[in-house]
Amino acid sequence: MTNNLHPAFILILAAFVVPFLRGKMKNVFLLMVPLLGLLNQVYLPEGNLWNIHFMNYQMDFLRVDKLSMIFGYIFHIITFLGLLYALNFKNNIEFVAALIYAGSALGVVFAGDLLTLFFFWEIMSVSSTCLIFARKIPEAIKAGFRYFLVHLTGGLILLIGIILYFNETGSLSFNNIVLNSTGAYLIFLGFGINCAWPVIHSWLPDAYPQATIAGAVFLSSFTTKTAVYVLARGFSGVDLLIWIGLVMTVFPIFYAVIENDLRRVLSYSLINQVGFMVVGIGIGTNMAINGVAAHAFAHILYKALLFMSMGAVLLQTGKIKATELGGLYKSMPITALCCIIGAASISAFPLFSGFVSKSIIMSAAGHEHLMLVWIVLLFASAGAISAEAGIKIPFFTFFSHDSGLRPKEPPLNMLVAMLVTAFLCLFIGIFPGYLYAFLPYPINYVPYTSTHIITQLQLLIFSALAFTLLLRSGIYPSEIRSLNIDSDWLYRKGGKAFLWFVDNPMVKVSNVVKDTFFVIIPRILNLFILRPIAVLLLLFIEKEKKRELKEALFSGEIYYFNEIHKYWNIGLSVLIIILLLSIYLLVFFLQHIYR
Amino acid sequence: MKKELKTFDSKISVKIILLILYLSCAFLFLLDFLLHKHIYFNMEVWSGFYAVFGFVSSVVIILIAKFLLRRLVMRQENYYDK
């Protein structure tokens, strides 16, 4: 234990103070906390700073090195910008959840061992769920529960993985994990769920569009990027990640083209961008990891900016579907400008942040002569421009057909937050040296070469040309009010099917079982004890009689085979009794006579 | 009330924007023949590689999304509530 403050606990403790503050005091406090945290982080020395002994284990709460530092910086910056953006919502749940969420994301980034990591990992999933619940509409609550269940499952897989891994290696320290045992694979998968790998990605486009306006900004920043960080830390150079990443870069593009909800379009493009990072982690060279860190940094900013601008549109118009929007540049020019800057950054336009970060990963693939990887990444880059966030988002919101809506610009704090974020996107794009200085490994990459600028411009402009020509010829898919099923279909319809299965066939079978073992068999046994002869008779008499006898047995009545039997029985009984008595008398006399 | 911004609504401005787009396409395409590229892969040397690649992949993506993916996955908005 040293005198250093832990960045995670600064934010988490501050969250508990927020509900007790009012008015301007609260605003100032909310903005000061991340800035103080950032200042604190700047002065952290490298090394393992916080060691706590917990049940025979040493927990390293604060491992500071270059990789954790760069993620720490961007997390603080985006917490500040997100809170600034959220100020006018005056919703304590959001503030508290956002601070805890940001704090626990920092906790994951600075965790030196797997137990600490898991601890913050779980806080992260709980607090982020609150940002979805805080929207308070039924769809959001439902999506929040689905989101929470997925992350709970992911957390459990991670925990089982950590326990097995500890059994196998005897160590909990979180460094490079060799992917050769069940434990390691489960940890890998646990990270992958938060990283939105293909098929297990659907929680992201399901939940993010349902989050609160400010909540989506935080959500887009932390969960997937902490997953990128832990993968870069634990599994860099795992070939499998290249292929996972490539699928992530490609398939969301197609979904983004046909999606109508614009925040969902952003969610798909988020997966596409995280895909680039996952590919970089898979390549695993120093240059690639530099690219991953730089791209995560730039990506958090421009993705948050895009979510902010869409949030502003949602707040001012109450609409977020492309079919209902259009022509908003007339009354929201500043928001439109910020959105375009975010879109230019995500498209990697020269002078914008994506240009200086994404290209490092591309070049790393080139350096390793991974031609197929490189081609797919180029394909995904082109798609990101023409199909999703690059042109689609700004075009359908702010231009396209005039929706007739004339909303005002959002409140000042939101505008300032967007402008500052937009400024940072441009600043990184124009002066990449400042970002490169914080990268984990030494770098001598020069983004602004004539080859890179011109080839990238060609890719951009010709993708834009394709968009324009297809749009003007009417081939570009018109926006339709619709829903596109994704792999969440498996658990949404699957869950319903399971419930139906439980409600119908399962219940029927269980009723039969219940009836057999708890009603029919005990009854038969009961009858057999009370009236054994009647029950035995059942086995021998003919059908017609059998039914009558059965009825009589179950209702407890006495049964006669026919009317005469009723009297016949009495006569027969008397006869038998008389017979027995006579025999008895006879025996008695005979005894006396022959004594 | 402030005068409304209408710059991008007139037909002339749309035409100007399109003209700029087409001209820059032509310019960049021609620039490719003059540029000495520093490259990783042989195909990057092919003139117009990036332009054609960008254009073709965008078209392919949009067509696949429209004619294939939409058929497969598009449902009514209340699909999950039914």
| Mean pLDDT over the full residue set of chain A | 90
- Assembly classification: heterodimer
Uncertain stretches of 5 or more adjacent residues of chain B: none
Total of DSSP H or I helical runs spanning 4+ residues of chain B? 2
SSE-based structural type of chain A? mainly alpha
Radius of gyration of chain A: 36 Å
Shape of chain A: elongated
Query: Which strand-content bin applies to the residues of chain B?
Result: under 5%
Major beta sheet of chain B, specifics? none
E-strand count of chain A: 5
Helix content of chain B: 55-70%
Give the strand order of the largest sheet of chain A, numbering strands 1, 2, ... along the chain.
1-4
* Cα-based radius of gyration of chain B, to the nearest Å: 21 Å
How many strands appear in the DSSP assignment of chain B? 1
Global morphology of chain B: flat
Describe the structure.
- The complex is a heterodimer of chains A (595) and B (82).
- Chain A contains 23 helices and 5 strands.
- Chain A is an all-alpha fold and 595 residues long.
- In chain A, helix 3 (66-86) packs antiparallel against helix 4.
- The longest helix of chain A has 43 residues, at 488-530.
- Chain B has 82 residues and is mostly helical.
- Chain B is built from 2 helices and 1 strand.
- The termini of chain B are far apart.
- At the A-B interface, helix 10, helix 14, helix 15, helix 19 and strand 5 of A face helix 1, helix 2 and strand 1 of B.
Could you give the topology of this structure?
The complex is a heterodimer of chains A (595) and B (82).
Chain A lengths: L6 H11 L5 H20 L4 E2 L2 E4 L2 E4 L2 E2 L1 H21 L5 H19 L3 H20 L4 H32 L12 H13 L8 H5 L5 H22 L4 H20 L3 H22 L2 H32 L15 H14 L6 H15 L3 H16 L5 H7 L13 H19 L1 H5 L13 H23 L10 E2 L3 H43 L1 H7 L4 H13 L7 H31 L2
Antiparallel strand pairs in A: 1-4, 2-3
Helix pairs in contact in A: 1-2, 1-4, 2-3, 3-4, 3-9, 3-12, 3-17, 4-5, 4-9, 5-6, 5-9, 6-7, 7-9, 9-11, 9-12, 10-11, 10-15, 11-12, 11-14, 11-15, 12-13, 12-14, 12-17, 13-16, 13-17, 14-15, 14-17, 15-19, 20-21, 21-22
Chain B lengths: L10 H24 L14 H25 E2 L7
